[in-house]
Amino acid sequence: MNILIIGNGFDLAHDLPTKYEHFLKYVDAFKRFADICKQESIKAAWEVANEEDKKFILHFSNLYEHDKKIYEEIETLLSNNVWIDYFGEVYKSRCALGKDGWIDFESEISRIIQALDQARFTILEEINQGHKRGKMTQQQLNILSPIFGKPGISRDSIEFDENAVGYRKVRFITDLNRLTRCLEIYLRNYVEEITPKVKLPDIDKLNVHCVLSFNYTHTYKKFYDTDKSSKIKYDYIHGETRADSTVDDCNLILGIDEYLEGTAKNRDNEFIQFKKFYQRIYKKTGCKYVDWINSIAQFPSGYGKNGDAIHNVYIMGHSLDITDKDILSSLINMKGTKTTIFYHSQATLGNQISNLVKVLGEDELIAKVHGENASIVLQKQKEPISIEH
Fold first, then answer.
1. Are 364 and 333 in the same domain?
2. Which of 104, 267, 322, 332 is 20 to 30 A off residue 50, Cα-Cα?
3. How much is the pLDDT for 306?
C-alpha cells in the first residue's frame, strides 16, 4: 500500500493562496469592495486597482450578481467578528513593522484561550476573597485587551464579574465558527476556482492508494486523481470544503492543541470546544488512516525481492510539526514501510529534520535514515512542470 501525506506546502507549490494571510487579504478586499459592488461603481475602482485587487473585484462582483446568497453570508460572517477583527489588526501591525505579514491563527487562538482560562481563576480568586468583582493580572490583560477591543488598558481600570469569562467564551466559540465557515467559503469559492499552472513530477508519477490530507482543499483529487478507474481512498483529517455547508455543519477543523497537563486534561473541560481533538470528534472528520494502518499490519512486513519496501509513505508539503506527532509517528513507524519525505529547499530540510527529532526521537531518527535499507529517505523535490489547460 502506498500512502501520500500532504500538507499546506502542497497547495502552495501549486501557487494556490492558502495561507492565513491570503485569507485575511480576501477579507480586507471584501470590506473595501463591498460598497463598490452594490453601488455599481466597479469601473472606477478597476481603473486604479492593482492586479490582485482586480481579481478580487471580479470575484466579488460575480458573487454579488450570480450567487448573492454566498455574498450576503460573507457579510454576515464578517460582521462584528472578534477573531476577524483581531487577526486583521495583528496582520496590519506586522506589515507596518516591515514584517512579512505571516500569521498563525491557531497559535494566536491558543495564546488567547490560555490567557482567558488563567484569568478565569484569577477573577474567581478575588471574588472568593469577598470582592464583588475581580481583576485580571496585567500580563493576562495585555494578551486579552486587544481582542476585547481595548488594547493597552491597565488592570486597575477594569473589573469583571464571575460570568465575564463564560460570556466571552461563548462569544469566542461562536465567532470562531463564523470565521471557520468564512474560511471555507474563501477556499471553496475562490481558491478552488483557480486552476494550477504547474504539476509536481515527484507526485505525478506515484502510484497512490490512499491520501491523508491535512489540507481543506481537494487539489490532489482534482488534478492528479484523474483516472476514473482508480479507487484512491481519502482521509481529510482536518475536514474538507463542501458545497452545501453552513456555519452549523461546516466540518473544517480550526482549533488548538491540548495545553493542560496531567489530570487537568480530563478534569477541566471549560474550553474543550476550542481543541482539535474535540472538534474532530464533534465534526466527525474521522480517522480513516487508522484503518489503513490496521490493513497494512495484516500483510507480510519487510522488503520485496528487489529491496523495495512493500509499503510506502510519501510526505509532501508538511512541516512534520510535533502537533501532528501521533499521526505521523504511527505511519512512519509501520513495519516494512519506507517513508520518503520531499523537501524543496535546504532551509525546509533543516526544519523537517529538527521536527522529526521531536516526532521520533533522536536515536530512532538516526537508526531510520542510515543503512542499506533505510526506512526514511529525505529527497529533494523536482521543480514543478508547467502545464497547459
1. yes
2. 104
3. 55
